[in-house]
Design a protein that fits this description.
single chain; Dihydrodipicolinate Reductase, domain 2; 2 domains; nine-stranded mixed beta sheet; about 325 residues; alpha/beta; globular; six-stranded parallel beta sheet; Rossmann fold
């Protein structure tokens, strides 16, 4: 049984705790949050020891692995410390705010010999898992074009000051639009080779972006567009649309997967899930636990997550320069 500590026992830390409670192969043994009252309430509901300093949690010999669900700009220092303490790491996305910080994390886990998995949760959403299986089977041929959209209310209850500044890893693009980029890149199965983007702040009084459109050229010849919108007034849209050489595919978290062929759309059986996020987190944890138990490569590698950050930053650069940016290197 894997003994886990949660560093960042806030709203998403709670989502992890609920998922862990449904998995027999893991036990929540510790949690960390700087707010003492909130920490007491958290451990009262989910169990484990409470720590207000993550260093104390990492010093606990009963903790074998940690999930890091803290503000984005804190990821690197905590991940480095966790690796040095010999803890396996499930690190929430985004991996880090810069490529240099991503490299520091990769070097730290390599030195320590611990597992690192980055929590790109869309890989485990039931609809997206099934869509990936269909694509990998070759049934629809090759992906030619993809459009991945996330439009959501920006100032949801868990929004904090650091979400509003680019230098602390904030903005709609880094915070939420990254999901669109991640799932499209994973589904296409090829690294991005160039980025052309327009990011802007149109709806809110903040430094970081709240809207963007990003055009991507992939190494395998596919092309994609990401729409990232954190609106003030609107309605949510979470959709991925793929055009393939032998058909089309639409993917929605809740509505499931639809295949377009022979002039009609057909629902794929078994692709609808009422509570997709909870189910995805359970599947994410099972993948991480299996990687630790079998000493295998995690389902979402640090190298892949680094590439996603590389594209995120290239999009910011492209928008600033108003020109296409060419990327170098491959994703793992």
């Amino acid at each position: 049984m894997l003994h886990v500590g949660i560093i960042g026992a806030g709203s998403y830390g709670e989502a992890h705790a609920r998922a862990l409670a449904e998995i027999d192969a893991v036990r929540l043994v510790a949690a960390c949050r700087t707010d003492e009252a909130a920490l007491r309430e958290f451990v009262g509901r989910f169990g484990g020891k409470g720590y207000t300093d993550y260093c104390d949690l990492l010093a606990d010999p009963g903790v074998q692995a940690v999930v890091i669900a803290t503000p984005h700009h804190q990821h690197t220092a905590i991940a480095e410390a966790a690796a040095a303490a010999g803890k396996h790491i499930l690190l929430e996305k985004p991996m880090a705010s810069t490529l240099a910080e991503c490299d520091r994390i990769l070097q730290a886990v390599d030195r320590a010999g611990v597992k690192l998995m980055v929590g790109h949760v869309n890989h485990f959403a039931p609809a997206y898992e099934l869509a990936k299986q269909i694509l990998d089977s070759g049934e629809l041929g090759e992906v030619v074009l993809g459009v991945s959209t996330m439009s959501k209310f920006w100032f949801e209850p868990n929004r904090r000051w650091w979400h509003l500044k680019r230098e602390t890893g904030g903005g709609m693009w880094m915070t939420a639009g990254i999901h669109c980029l991640d799932r499209l890149t994973w589904l296409i199965g090829s690294p991005v080779r160039s980025v052309a983007a327009h990011l802007a702040t149109r709806f809110h009084d903040q430094e970081a972006d709240d809207v963007g459109m990003i055009f991507l050229r992939y190494a395998n010849g596919a092309a994609g567009t990401v729409v990232s919108t954190g609106y003030a007034v609107g309605a949510p849209k979470h959709l991925t649309e793929l055009t393939c050489t032998r058909g089309m595919m639409n993917i929605d978290y809740a509505a499931g997967v639809y295949i377009g062929r022979d002039e009609r759309w057909q629902a794929v059986p078994g692709s609808v899930c009422d509570d997709w996020m909870h189910e995805a987190l359970i599947r994410e944890w099972r993948g991480f636990i299996r990687a630790v138990a079998e000493d295998a490569e995690p389902p979402v590698t640090g190298a892949f997550a680094r590439h996603i950050i590389q594209v995120v930053l290239a999009a910011q650069q492209s928008s600033d320069l108003r020109q296409e940016v060419i990327l170098e290197g491959d994703a793992g």
